[in-house]
Design a protein that fits this description.
Low-confidence stretches: 84-97, 116-120
Largest sheet: 7 strands, parallel
Strand content: 5-15%
Structural class: alpha/beta
Number of helices: 14
Order of helices and strands: HHHEHEHEHEHEHEHEHHHHH
Strand order of the largest sheet: 3-2-4-1-5-6-7
Bound molecules: guanosine-5'-triphosphate, magnesium ion
Radius of gyration: 22 Å
Length: 317
């Protein structure tokens, strides 16, 4: 079915959902539409919400949606690999609240599979964010589970990264070593109704103290929330807006956006190159011989790959 880019610009959710599916499937038709939408993007503020599993990211996201909606902002939500068995496949933990959002034309929710990609934030995620941006979503929330490797990627996509932690996870120190805190523009200690929250806040502050930073740098605020009750979520939303203002005033917002676009560009180049290369290689008798040699163990895959790469100029058109 044909997708009219005008419908997406007008905020049509069905058209947007179809386009995101095309993009996920890597359909060239999707990319053509995205090209025409691109000039209308660049206005959304992208907020990453990351942290270990079960810390309350979805519950917080749900509240943020409510707060931003009450200000009349259109909100897009991307849940990368929603894993919580609690949500039973629904996107956000609190199904009742989500249900309310789902009937709200100003909220567009999409879940996406990380597809084994280490980063949890793959090209399709970036593209979904572009589609939501073109739809007029002023805020885009991207929820990912921070498992230790993917923090950097979410922080490259997002303008503002919220790191959600809870006390009593046992491996708190481990998590900080892994760099989760490093990427947070805002650190949240959620489940502050449970014991140990104050200690964790102090621990986070201590880690931040040790971080060498320039005078005018943004020091990530450490906020306490009780997401199940909505405590502290208003302040969290305010802090997101403060951070956006800081980024705008310091000129860092364009830096982050540029870095994001360059990252996407590099991903696209890699994908296009590898597709093109394998198209060419599949028709190459030399490549077929190398594959046969690997199968018969006449050559090791490393040496074979070296030969392919060394011969690359041969296949350049
Ligand atoms: N006691 C307490 N429980 C909370 C709080 N916030 C969330 N929860 C509960 O924690 C559980 C996980 O919440 P989610 O919002 O699904 O957490 P999540 O980080 O999105 O989980 P994943 O997406 O699976 O990583 C749910 O049972 C929530 O009701 C809180 O402030 N206090
Ligand atoms: Mg979740």
């Amino acid at each position: 079915m044909k997708i009219d880019p005008q419908n997406i610009l007008a905020g049509n959710q069905l058209a947007a959902a179809r386009l995101i599916t095309l993009l996920e499937e890597g359909e060239p038709a999707g990319v053509e539409i995205l090209k025409s939408l691109y000039p209308h993007t660049g206005k959304a503020h992208i907020v990453g919400i990351t942290g270990p599993a079960g810390t309350g990211k979805s519950t917080l996201a749900s509240w943020l949606i409510s707060v931003f909606r009450s200000r009349g902002t259109k909100v897009g939500v991307i849940a990368v690999d929603p894993s919580s068995p609690l949500s039973g496949g629904a996107l956000l933990g609190d199904r009742v609240r989500m249900y309310q959002h789902e009937s709200d034309e100003g909220v567009f929710i999409r879940s996406m599979a990380a597809r084994g990609h280490l980063g949890g934030v793959n090209r399709a995620t970036r593209e979904a964010a572009l589609v939501m941006d073109a739809m007029g979503c002023g805020m885009i929330l991207v929820e990912t589970v921070g498992a230790g490797q993917d923090e950097v990627e979410i922080s490259q996509l997002a303008h503002t990264t919220i790191v959600v932690t809870i006390s009593g996870m046992g491996d708190e120190i481990q998590e900080m070593k892994a760099g989760l805190l490093e990427i947070g523009d805002i650190i949240v200690v959620n489940k502050a109704d449970l014991p140990g929250a104050d200690d964790l806040v102090r621990l986070h502050e201590m880690m931040l103290d040790r971080r060498q930073a320039a005078e005018d740098d943004w020091r990530p605020p450490v906020l306490r929330t009780i997401a199940i009750k909505g405590d502290g979520v208003g302040e969290l939303a305010e802090t997101v807006l403060d951070h956006r203002e800081y980024l705008t005033n310091s000129g860092r917002i364009s830096q982050r956006s540029r870095a994001r676009d360059l990252k996407l560009f590099r991903q696209i180049v890699v994908e296009l190159l590898s597709r093109k290369m394998f198209n060419l290689l599949d028709n190459s008798p030399e490549f077929a011989r190398l594959m046969a040699s690997i199968e018969s163990r006449a050559i090791d895959p490393y040496t074979a790959a070296d030969r392919v790469v060394a011969g690359l100029r041969v296949i350049s058109e």
